Amino acid sequence: MLFKSKNKVAAVLLLPSFAYASDNHEYHHEHDESSVETIQVSASRLGRVVTESATRTEIINGEEIQEKALMRPGNISMLVAETGGVRVQTTSPALGSANIRLQGLYGRYTQLLSDGLPLYGAQTASIGLLQIPPTDLANVEIIKGSASSLYGGSALGGVINLISRTPSDEFEGEVLVNLTSKDGQDVTSYFAAPLTDELSGSVTAGIHRQSTQDLDNDGWIDLAGYERGSIRPRLYWQGEDGDNLYVTLGVMKEQRRGGTSDNATLSDGRSFQQNQDTIRSDLGFVYDRSLTESASLNMRGASMLQNHEHQYGDVFEDDNHKSYLIESSYSDYSDDMSWLIGAAFQQESFDSDTFSEFNYSYKAPGIFSQLDYEVSDEVSASLSARTDWHSEYGTQVSPRVSVLYQPSNWTLRGAYGKGYYAPTPFIEDIDEVGLSRLLPLEDLEAEQATTASVDISYITGDLETSVTLFSSDVENVTELDQVTNNSSNKTVRIVNAEDESKIRGAELLLRYRWNDIKFTGSYLYTDATKLGNNNSNRVPLTLTPEHSAGLVVMWEEHGSHLLGFEAYYTGTQHLENNPYREKSDAYWHLGLLGQITVGRISLFLNAENLLNVRQTKEDSLLLPTQAPSGRWTTDIWSRNDGFTVNGGIRFKF
């Protein structure tokens, strides 16, 4: 499935390795004599050459993924967290679960895809981010701002697309073994090979373990313990006439333990264990068929089943989540225009054995279209729109327009979009407390957002700079509200906020390569507010730092050695329902990474949080008394792991 350019050939562009790319699921990389990377893009919607795409899509390339896999082999949290404008926010201090916030928007608005498929559900569970290893990733694509026009309501805040490696013409594989100073262990593996002339396959598997850690000896577990195993085979078929079929299957099982440690009690004299057992299975496919020289048909589908067994103190909850997608689209092109039209059906359901009053089954048939038009050699535009007929929240229309102006070494992009999100009980505050104290959802309206951005980039030689200005207005935000005068044990409810959340900000990026050394600097300013409790003044959004910045220096000679240093600054954050403070402290996170490679064997050592930053050094994580919602902890506004060292060995075959 190659992008058809004006010359009716696959689009190929020479770019430095830190360049942006459009939404796709296949990449092929080569290096010319000047070490400039060739990227051939195959799009999952309308493929565009990287610099010709009106929609700005950032890419974390394979080189960066390999580096981050040494720091955190068990999950992708660190991989995405150290990207400008992206914040990984812990939602449950007991279990360590987290979601991904793009440019200050709530994490539930971020759609997580695997090769363009929602294999982790339309609304990815917060714990899911910690259950996806980076072992088999080739690239990661990030679209910030509303992408509901192409991906539906779950992409109100943006899309993160995990792109898997594709097998080469020869057998390849690797095994990575990792140990941490906090008694954690990881073993991951990836193997790929051609099976026939037309068929190839790969398999990724991992075993991960972490023992519980009470770092401040207060009887509350600061690092949740877990045991997890996963396996994911993939098949790739390419017919003689150019047809392509991709099929994947995934299975994951995890037991996670948190809350009070053995024999410990809280201020009410009781223990409070917080545990979660998960079994997830998924299946997905993508099929492309060329109909004519210019036209093609794309079909894709995905299904996911996730079973949970929760424990919140003396409350046990058993439930399962199901998600389905079936989609078909037709695309064509002319000399200066590419277009696509398609139809999709999505279903997201929740079934609780314990609290059946929260069961739901959302069905959303929809149609979508996209038009990319080249006005001139320097100007192009992309128009997309989607209409969903949601079974609970009615007809939802999501448009998006993007414009590109590219004079010489400059690149200017503008984007404007609208989207929606269908409320569920699973907002961030529920991760920590479960459903036992929550009233059934009533009279909620769909959450709506309008997003806009302007991006200015300049590339010359080995220097790349960019500035992005962004804004978002979010209406009908769902939030937790305390209930008064209720005779039952139901003490909280979910309501739509009376006023909209407003987010304004700017991103600054600077990248420079000098010989084998890469320098990356970033800065993010975010002004995010909502109406305060007195309905008169606007207050900052909780856990949203106004200022954050980062610096990464990486010295690497392929096949020999790697040495890296990183420094990240997180500014003060507004806090709510925290009896110890109303504003957090600012803090720094420093890290060192080293790797030596001899032949096919690499030894690595990584030191994280060199300053030993830990929130429980400043304040207790525990509340003096249990909150009305049922939670026993404050929010995490800093780190909770302290200084950590990990190291291991990687074998390549």
Task: Describe the protein in words.
- With 653 residues, this protein is mainly β.
- The protein has a 22-stranded antiparallel barrel.
- Strand 23 (447-460) and strand 24 (463-475) form a beta hairpin.
- It has a single domain, classed as Beta Barrel (Maltoporin, Chain A).
- The model is unreliable at 1-44 (pLDDT under 50).
- The protein contains three helices and 34 strands.
Keywords:
653 residues; mainly beta; Maltoporin, Chain A; 22-stranded antiparallel beta barrel; 4-stranded mixed beta sheet; 34 strands; globular; disordered N terminus
Summarize the structure.
With 653 residues, the chain is mainly β.
Average pLDDT, all residues? 89
What are the segments in which pLDDT stays under 50 over at least 5 consecutive residues? 1-44
Shape: globular
Rg, please? 24 Å
**Major sheet details:** 22 strands, antiparallel, barrel
Through-space gap between termini: 29 Å
Helicity level: under 10%
CATH architecture designation: Beta Barrel
